[in-house]
Each structure stands twice: as C-alpha cells, then as structure tokens.
Amino acid sequence: MRKKRPVYLRVMAGITAIIIIGVIAFITNAFTGNPISAHFAKKHMISYATKKYPDMDLSFSKTEYNFKTGGYTIKASNANSIDTHFMVNRRSDGYIYDGYENYVLGGFNTLDRLGKEMTKDMEPLLKELFKNELSGRLFADCIGDKKNLEKGAPPLNTPYNRVMKLNATIYMDFDLKNPTIEEISDRIQKADKLLKKEGFSVGGYVVEALNRDTKKGYMVTVYADIINEKFPEVMKNAFDNNNNSEGVSITAVGK
After folding, report:
1. Predicted local confidence at residue 238, as pLDDT
2. What secondary structure letter does DSSP report for 216?
3. What sign does the dihedral 237-243-248-250 (CA atoms) show?
4. How many Å apart are CA 235 and CA 155, to the nearest integer?
C-alpha cells in the first residue's frame, strides 16, 4: 500500500503552487494588463469617444495594454470615412484623451493613405526599371518633414490620382556592385525622369545604395527640383564640398 505524504508536505505543495500561479498571473498582467481593468477601461474610453463625437458612427478595436505606462488604448474608426480613425488612450491615472485633432483634422491619416496608394502605383514601374537592383525600402512618403501638413492636407477621403500635388519623398534602397556617387546619380536621374513622365508629384529622394556584401556605400538625400542634366556635377560638387550643398546631403555608410 502506497504511503500518503505527510499533511504538512501537501499543504506546502499547495501553497507553492498558489505562489507560482500568482507570480505567473502577476507577470502576465504586467505585460498584458488585468482583464477586468481592461474591460472597464474600454467601457470608459468608448463612453468618452461617443459623447465627444456623437455624429460619428464609430466602431472600436479590442483594448491594447501599454505595459510601459500602465495605460490602455483602443482604435476608433468610422466605416463611412476611410481617413477617420484615431486612437483613444486612457492613462493609468484614468485620464482619457484622443488623437482625432492631429490624425484626422490635421491631415496625417489622409496623407499617410495617399502615400501608400502612391507607393502601390509607382512600385511596379520602378521595379521594372531597376529590376533586381532595388533591395529594401521602396515607398512614397507624403508627410515627410510636415511641410505638407503645414500647407494643409487634401480634404478627408480625397481619392488618389497621380496628378495630385503631393510633393512626395521617394525612398529607395539599391544593391549595387559599385555604389559610387556617379552610379547613384544615374539611378536617381532615371527614377526622376520616369516618375515625372508618368505624372507623379515628387519633392525629393532618399536613396541608400550599398554593396550588400561589403555593406559599404552612400545615403543620399536630394530635392527633386535640382535634378536635371547637370545633376551628376551637382552631386560631385556636394560630395567634394563636405557632402552637403545645393539641396544634396551625402553620407558615407560603412566607410
């Protein structure tokens, strides 16, 4: 007959199990939040948003917990407006605020969407032009240094088309066997010529051209309005004169 363990051992084992479960629950809550707290936080955030924006048909995402601040966040969206979506935040002290003014009224969402649609439009053209040389980033940024926001974004839900004056910054990464200033100038000129021919509104380029084996090359930032037949000379002058002049910034990578 099997001997039963002493009662005190069973009690200790039970206490240990409870402690372990408690520690696991504490650690889990520290990163994911308490389900009960999350429920009430969401309830309060929804009440806040629906009272503040009664004319919007808002839907809400699940609650996200920010373990760094101890607060909760939900995303509010209007199904009738592609650009009307913003975050509602509840701090650990219970204070609630939202990003409607900056992201919706400020035009951030609209310009962000238009940049993504422009990316989809231009991406196949540039990939056809450069083939396997393109490696990494390839996208249009219509927000950039906030100049577009300061000028005023297009109205909410404005449909995308190429002729819009978006003044986008085009980001491109190249994998070149010999990433010299001359080679990079050539790629930027070709991209600019193609995009302008196709009717895109481009304000500038940010290009990283590296030899992926050596990890060496250059990062170049350039305004589109200086790209012409003399552009290679402008690039050379910028490189020879402290890498920053005439609307061009050149930074060596891996040198």
Report:
1. 87
2. E
3. positive
4. 37
Tell me the pLDDT tens digit for each residue of 104-155: 999 999 999 999 999 999 999 999 999 999 999 999 999 875 555 566 788 9
Q: How far is CA 227 from CA 56, 71, 247, in A?
A: 45, 48, 10
Q: Is the pTM of this model over 0.85?
A: no
Look-up of token digits 């060596």: 252
Percent of the chain predicted with pLDDT > 90: 66
State the pLDDT at residue 66: 87
Distance from C-alpha of 250 to C-alpha of 236, rounded to nearest angstrom: 10
Question: How would you write 37-101 as a 3-class SS string?
Answer: HHHHHHHHHHHHHHHHCCCCCEEECCCEEECCCCEEEEEEEECCCCCCEEEEEECCCCCEEECHH
Give the DSSP letter of residue 165.
-
Of residues 25, 2, 235, 205, the one with CA closest to residue 122:
205
Task: Please tell me the distance from the alpha carbon of residue 138 to that of residue 172, in angstroms, as a whole number.
Answer: 5
